[in-house]
Prior knowledge:
262 residues; mainly alpha
Amino acid sequence: MLGIEVSVVAFGVGVLVGMTGVGGGALMMPFLVLYFGVPARIAVGTDLLFAAVTKAAGMSMHGLRGTIDWQVVRRLWFGSLPAAAVTGWFIYLFGRESFNVDRFILDALGIMLVLTALCLLARGWLHGIGRRLRLGSAADFKRLQPAATVLAGAVLGIVVTLTSVGAGALGAAALLYLYPLRLTPAKLVGTDLVHAIPLACVAGISYWLMGSVDWTLLGWMLLGSIPGVLLGAHWATRSSPAVLRAILAVLLVVSGVKILIA
């Protein structure tokens, strides 16, 4: 029965991931920790590999539709993948000491859930600021774009490895600011989605090496998420997910607060 419950939740999460590029770690992690009682390190490790496979399924649909900006993806990878590897190494080292890694991960997760909710609500504001800067100081803005994208990728690499949260909402917020004219809504989702796949793999390997991946749990999660993300990606170009983002933001704030006070 537990496996079926996990698959049902994962299906819903997959639909949201396919439609908005957001919701993988941000939604699955609170469910795993608060509802299913999975220990923090195992929840993060399992969720990272879950996110990698789920988003890979969504990538196929976005690839067929041409909604991926590969130059932007490569710039993000240049920052995020090394940062994820280094962060994973530190988690591995601290995990062998008396340091309470699980509590640290939970605190970081609670903060990231609230921050993710704020990013969801501030998307329009960030896009407006980026658009004004892009139009008002085009040459300077474009000159700084590559380095700023790499830096944004590095920040994402750190927070995603710590919590499995952030690749979707934080990544999308950064891209809306950095590429306000270049990325259409569908391309924003596709680009953000593809960036997260190897990032989740690199981060997930660190937890795998620590023995912090529950393969049975992962299987039930994927059973629900893969059809969900394909369905969501199919709807991505014909839907307006603003209402979904608002509902998601409320859920994330509630979940983040519950984790912080637990």
